[in-house]
Backbone:
C-alpha cells in the first residue's frame, strides 16, 4: 500500500513526540485504542487557564497513518481553544493526509484521542 507524501513526511519526522509530566495540573491525556488493529495512541494537551491549548505531545504505537494522524493533530491543536480543537474531524485529517479508505480508522483514532483528552479537561474543570 502506498502512503501519501504527507504521511511519509510525518512518519519520518513526527512532530511533538513525547510526554508531559502527568502530575502537571494543566496537562490532560487522551489514550485510545483501535480494536480492529490493536494500535494505541496517547495524546497529551497542556491547556492554560483561558482554555487555550499551549502545547501537545503524542506517543503512538501503530501504523504509519496513525503516527501521521497524531503528529498532524499535535500541530493543529496548538494555539487553539478547547472548543476549536474539539471540532477537528477525522475527515479533515484523512483529507489532509490523503488517507485511503482502509486507513480512515487511523484518523478516527486521532479524533478520538482529542476527544478523550478534552473529556478529561471537562471533568477537571467541573471539579
Ligand atoms: Fe489501525 Fe492504522 S492500521 S490505526
Residues:
Amino acid at each position: 500500500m502506498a502512503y501519501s507524501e504527507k504521511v511519509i513526511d510525518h512518519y519520518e519526522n513526527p512532530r511533538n513526540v513525547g510526554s508531559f509530566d502527568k502530575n502537571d495540573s494543566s496537562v490532560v491525556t487522551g489514550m485510545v485504542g483501535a480494536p480492529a488493529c490493536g494500535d494505541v495512541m496517547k495524546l497529551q494537551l497542556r491547556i492554560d487557564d483561558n482554555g487555550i491549548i499551549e502545547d501537545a505531545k503524542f506517543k503512538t504505537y501503530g501504523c504509519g497513518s496513525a503516527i501521521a494522524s497524531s503528529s498532524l493533530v499535535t500541530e493543529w491543536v496548538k494555539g487553539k481553544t478547547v472548543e476549536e480543537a474539539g471540532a477537528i474531524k477525522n475527515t479533515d485529517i484523512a483529507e489532509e493526509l490523503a488517507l485511503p479508505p482502509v486507513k480512515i480508522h487511523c484518523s478516527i483514532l486521532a479524533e478520538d484521542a482529542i476527544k478523550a483528552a478534552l473529556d478529561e479537561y471537562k471533568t477537571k474543570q467541573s471539579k
Q: What stands out?
A: The CA atoms of residues 72 and 97 lie 9 Å apart.
